[in-house]
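seq as requested:
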Amino acid sequence: MDVSYDACVTDAMNRVLEAERSARGAIGECELKMQGLLEQARQERRNILERAQKRITALHGRAARALERRTAQILGQREAPGAAQVMDGARLQAAIDNLLVRLTGEDEL
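struct tokens:
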């Protein structure tokens, strides 16, 4: 009877050990899959940041060009012969500062 009992115990222990090995294998597969998903998420984050940086750079460029155009217009009006109103330096600077705030949105900060 001891042989039969020992065989049952041995068989049960072997099943437990096999289940543990199987579980470790499944955990390892999950860890590998998780690492792959994390890398995909990191790459997506890098792509988003790159697109955002390109958009920000483009917006800054457009704002700078708009500022240059408007400044040239203001200066052209100031220097135009027969202009109805001549801007002095302080008024011109105030107009440029006001335009800069409107274009960059600094008044919203």
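DSSP finds two helices and no strands in the chain.
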